[in-house]
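Students often ask what a 'structure token' actually looks like in practice. Rather than answer in the abstract, let us consider Thioredoxin reductase, a protein of 347 residues. Its sequence is given first.
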Amino acid sequence: MDVQTRQEENLIILGGGPGGLTASIYAARNGFTPLVLNGPEPGGQIATTSELENYPGFPDPIGGFELTQKMTKQAEKFGVRLKYETAAEVDFSGAKFIVKTESQEYIADSVIIATGAEPKTLGLAKEDSLRGNGVSYCATCDAAFFRNKEVAVVGGGDTALWESTFLTKFASKVYIIHRRDKFRGAKILSDKVKAKANIEILWDTEVKSLRGDKKLKGLNIFNNKTGEEKELDVDGLFVAIGHSPRTDFLQGQIELDQYGYIKADKKQHTNITGVFACGDVQDPDYRQVVIASGSGAKAAIEASEYIEAKTDSFALKELKLDDYDLESTESLSESEKEELDLSLNLN
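Now compare that with the structural description of the same chain:
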């Protein structure tokens, strides 16, 4: 693509999950008009979660998709522009940063990477359709929905052991399904698991298939040494075999750890000055919406300061009221509208 056709931007945010959307809101409140490339399925991983009970401000459970829709609407009210495009390639070698999608090429003063991470799946039939309906990839998020019920956890590493222990606070019984004859996780976690009266470990065992159509009814499992098959009646299945950060397109452009997560400091800076990261793409430990949002706020504050300090930043984009949905401002008070007009440099 000809360099002259590149679209110039002050700030591009890669990813439209809670981290990216929060970053966009904070950047807009700082007077910028960030562009969010949120991919074909905006909302991030949380959009597939049926209910959240631990996000502040919502006394009643809220669906993950509904929460991200509210975040999106809030972002748009402050002039954030969202495109259903995915970054396919980047070039962070120069003073300005190049982002390429299938249909467009952009050049930006600063970039915030919020592409998230996706859980590794078992690859079973019905697994995707039962996600949020008995199949989960986050015990912290969903354990409370299985109070006094029997559940199973697949995995044998630290995450599986920790989640199994956590689930015993809610579930009446927890089965750990592990394909080997010993755990790969830390001994201290293994000892805690073995000490729990309501945990049963199924060694050398794998899940063959899932039972149930609209809701999980149970599992068909088999012993990979004896070949014995049996049914396991559980209401929930927690898959804890790891996550994969969405960083393939960043190879060779930014520093990653051995698992592919972006290395970022406590202020969300990466090893490339002017490129920041937030959310699960740089957090292999917590994977919580509220933490992703908090890191998005930090990334936006840092990116805003970086852009303001540059002497060769692109000119701020001026938005007119008819450049975005007028209906999105109807719920704002007059003082909020005045503040919005000021922050967007409206005429």
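One point worth highlighting: Residues 320-328, 342-347 have pLDDT under 50 and may be disordered. Ask yourself how you might have guessed this from the sequence alone, and why that guess would often be unreliable.
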